[in-house]
Amino acid sequence: MSDKKTILSFEVFPPKKEDEFENAFATMDQLAKLKPAFISVTYGAGGSRSKKTVQIADHIQNKLGITALAHLTCVGNKKEDIDRVCEELVAANVTNVLALRGDRPKDMTDEQFESRDFAYASQLVSYLKQKGGFTLYGACYPEKHFEAMSTRADLMHLKEKVEAGATELITQLFMNNDVFYDFCEKALAAGITVPIHAGIMPITSAKQVATTISLSGTSIPKAFSDLVARYGETPEDMRKAGIDYAIRQMQDLIDGGVDGVHIYSMNKPKMTAEIVSALSI
Ligand code: FAD
To answer: CB of 103 closer than 6 A to ligand 1?
Structure first.
């Protein structure tokens, strides 16, 4: 067991509609009681809902007194859009940004795509670093990003992102800790020495396996597919089994002394509280 203290953080998403904000604020209030080191707030790849990300991050940072990490994607944003969001973030005292490329929105034309200002997240990191005043995080992929030619190529591009100014990394969800440990070793060997937060998503329904997991390209270990085969048809049992699996996965990471565990909370404070209370850090 390692002596190193692992940082615990959460990811949340902003509401889609204006009339859902009160509910969202109540959710953030409950999550804040679990005292995470920071809460990250997702951002739509199209950029049209950027204000909602800023509004939620503002609440977390200023009303709840917890460090907010605002996600910011560049695929659907021109430089002036990025400048505007940055101004809004600075006005809200939110200075931690997870700089992402995002995926091409379905309604984006070829012309818009070809003329985008930022091709990769590292270019956004570099742009934000030049602006100054932000602490920059980047995304990484223990099982390789789906577009990368090879694990090595993906790691080299990750290194470029760190060299451009990303001082912490958060991973895509994974279900097999050996994959994560192996990735950290390879990253270190490639000269990537910044903290890496392990992204864990509790999978509590068989439907989530078909949607979230298959979309993310995450491999499913046999131990977990056995649970789905056994409990997939009984929602309450599957929920319990999924939470237990996530707790065991996180405890192993904490015992292994990882830098951080980032829980994809899916705006579920009750589930997140069940997990946090079961962990010994
Ligand atoms: P990049 O770092 O740009 O990498 C994308 C691909 O390009 C990789 O295959 C990389 O190897 C390759 N690449 C990088 N540089 C080069 C280069 N110079 N030449 C050739 N290839 C290169 N999406 C959202 O829309 N909103 C969110 O809030 C959001 N939050 C996320 C949070 C986390 C922790 C993670 C892991 C992902 C998140 N995503 C989010 C998804 C993310 O936007 C997608 O996975 C997207 O496809 C890649 O974004 P990136 O920032 O990792 O891209």
So the answer is: yes
- Pocket mutation for ligand 1, best pick of 9, 100, 192 (most atoms within 8 Å of C-beta): 100
Task: State yes or no: is 22 an active-site residue.
Answer: no
Residue 100 CA: nearest ligand 1 atom is: 51
Q: Which residues lie below 8 Å from residue 280, measured CB to CB, with a gap of 6+?
A: 251, 254
* pTM exceeds 0.90 for this model: yes
Delineate the domains of the chain, giving CATH numbers in brackets: 7-197 (3.20.20.220)
Cβ-contact 69, 97 below 8 angstroms:
yes
Please tell me the predicted confidence (pLDDT) of residue 48. Answer: 67
The tens digit of pLDDT for each residue in 102-147 reads 999 889 999 999 999 999 999 999 999 999 999 999 999 999 999 9
